[in-house]
């Protein structure tokens, strides 16, 4: 693949026909990747991806991201191999250790770094056609073997990360890393340093790791409305990444901390919407590209000029008031990307 790729991450909130239309539109607009989130108790990510596989012909598609706590790693392997077969070899696997459905499922997030490393070992072994016995700290399998032959012996695995140890793990083991919801060059400076450290520990060149910037995005003629659209998303990320924020160069705003304490650190929509209202613009821009097309292009240009190694930019679109997700997806590719390229960032 030459040049930089752009992707879209969709949350399966909408009915399936609407999601399929969004996927087809993304493909026509020139996006190369279509990720579907696996969070809360939304529509099932792999059923949704299977439908998208049949509705598209060129997009790389995959969960962005699933995790080994809410889904058994061996079953993740069967699901991604099946999706790869259905899509004609277009599957990619996004793996992380987060998620907001663990409480609802009654599972505990323990030893996340070990769980990711062991999951990658198990999934790769199964896709390669081997019999795998693994007695790890977090993942176990006894004589596991797929009952069918995958169309590819290796599906690219991207690790979603923000915290130090997970970023290093991505550099050490993954085919790609999704630096989750960091649009700030300063935040990316830390992330890039830790990914590089992981790659060095494994004696592999950093160029073997596909770097992906995963950013919240809202594009509108009204910059305030666009910023308001990403407030609940940013409030959620602040809550789920508290341990990594200082290292990334961000202090949680005191007003936000007080509001979340009052709300019992709930991640329900009403709670994060309320907490998001007190976030300053600087915090919002750390996590996303939001504003007019010119605003978004300037932020994108600043990030990519500092880190030209970023091979993929994936947006998580948020609809502004009196706007739609489809409009954000369209305007980002048709207006923001060309504006950024006009100023020297290759598209």
Descriptive notes:
With 347 residues, this protein is an alpha/beta fold. The protein has two domains: 1-13 and 31-51 and 60-155, Alpha-Beta Barrel (TIM Barrel); 164-347, Luciferase-like domain (TIM Barrel), CATH 3.20.20.30. It is built from 15 helices and eleven strands. Strands 1, 2, 3, 4, 7, 8, 9, 10 and 11 form a nine-stranded parallel β-sheet that branches. The protein has a two-stranded antiparallel ribbon with strand order 5-6. Helix 3 crosses helix 5.
User: CATH class of the largest domain, anyone?
Assistant: Alpha Beta
**Total helix count?**
15
Weakly predicted, low-confidence segments = none
Estimate the strand proportion. Answer: 15-25%
Give the overall pLDDT as a whole number: 93
State the distance separating the first and last CA atoms.
Answer: 13 Å
The assigned CATH architecture of the largest domain is Alpha-Beta Barrel
Structural class: alpha/beta
Number of strands: 11
Task: Kindly state the percentage of residues in helix.
Answer: 40-55%
User: CATH homologous superfamily of the largest domain?
Assistant: Luciferase-like domain
User: What's the alpha carbon Rg, rounded to whole Å?
Assistant: 19 Å
């Amino acid at each position: 693949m030459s040049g930089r790729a752009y992707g879209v991450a969709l949350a399966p909130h909408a009915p399936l026909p609407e999601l399929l239309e969004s996927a087809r539109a993304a493909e026509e607009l020139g996006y190369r990747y279509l990720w579907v989130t696996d969070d809360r108790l939304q529509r099932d990510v792999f059923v949704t991806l299977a439908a998208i596989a049949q509705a598209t012909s060129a997009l790389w598609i995959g969960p962005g991201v699933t995790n080994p706590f809410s889904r058994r790693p061996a079953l993740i392997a069967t699901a991604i191999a099946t999706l790869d077969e259905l899509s004609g070899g277009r599957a990619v696997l996004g793996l992380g250790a987060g998620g907001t459905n663990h409480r609802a499922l009654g599972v505990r997030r323990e030893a996340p770094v070990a769980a990711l490393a062991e999951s990658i070992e198990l999934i790769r072994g199964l896709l390669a056609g081997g019999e795998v016995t693994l007695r790890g700290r977090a993942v176990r399998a006894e004589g596991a073997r797929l009952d069918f032959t995958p169309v590819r012996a290796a599906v690219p695995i991207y690790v979603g990360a923000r915290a130090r140890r997970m970023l290093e793990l991505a550099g050490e083991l993954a085919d790609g890393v999704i630096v989750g919801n960091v649009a700030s060059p300063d935040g990316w400076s830390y992330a890039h340093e830790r990914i590089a450290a992981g790659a060095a520990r494994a004696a592999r060149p950093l160029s073997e790791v596909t770097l992906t910037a995963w950013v919240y995005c809202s594009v509108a003629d009204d910059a305030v409305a666009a910023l308001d659209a990403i407030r609940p998303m940013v409030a959620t990320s602040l809550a789920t990444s508290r341990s990594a924020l200082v290292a990334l160069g961000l202090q949680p705003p005191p007003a936000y901390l007080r509001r979340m304490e009052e709300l019992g650190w709930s991640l329900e929509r009403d709670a994060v919407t309320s907490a998001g209202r007190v976030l300053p613009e600087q915090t919002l821009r750390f996590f996303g590209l939001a504003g007019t097309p010119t605003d978004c292009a300037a932020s994108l240009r600043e990030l990519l000029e500092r880190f030209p190694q970023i091979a993929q930019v994936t947006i998580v679109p948020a609809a502004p008031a009196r706007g739609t997700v489809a409009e954000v997806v369209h305007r980002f590719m048709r207006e923001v990307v060309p504006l950024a390229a006009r100023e020297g960032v290759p598209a």
